[in-house]
Amino acid sequence: MLVSNVNALDHFINLWDAYVAVHDREPRMDEAVFGNAIGERAKSFKKGLNALPEAAELKTDPFGRARTAYSFRHTYATRQLQKGTDIYTLAINMRTSVKMIEAYYSDVIPDDIARQLEGDFG
Asked: How far apart are CA 31 and CA 25, in angstroms?
């Protein structure tokens, strides 16, 4: 089952408009959805995604560890947990197990739980 993100629609429209601007025509149904600048089917996004942190001067995290394209997955998982997404839903969405989410992101959850438990009993 595909769950679309309504907020993504504007971005897809921007991609469509960019394609038209570059190629001076709308994409054809037989063309790849994701392609390179000359219209060939994209085989991998790893090189381009790995270049993004470098271009943004974020090639390393605060602990000196290198950021890669895989860092986007970790950022996504962390942000979803921080905003309160259910761990079971996140595991399904990321095509992984709850055990893996707990193993890699358990340090995200305690801060959020502490925040929920703070306050007065007034």
From this structure: 12
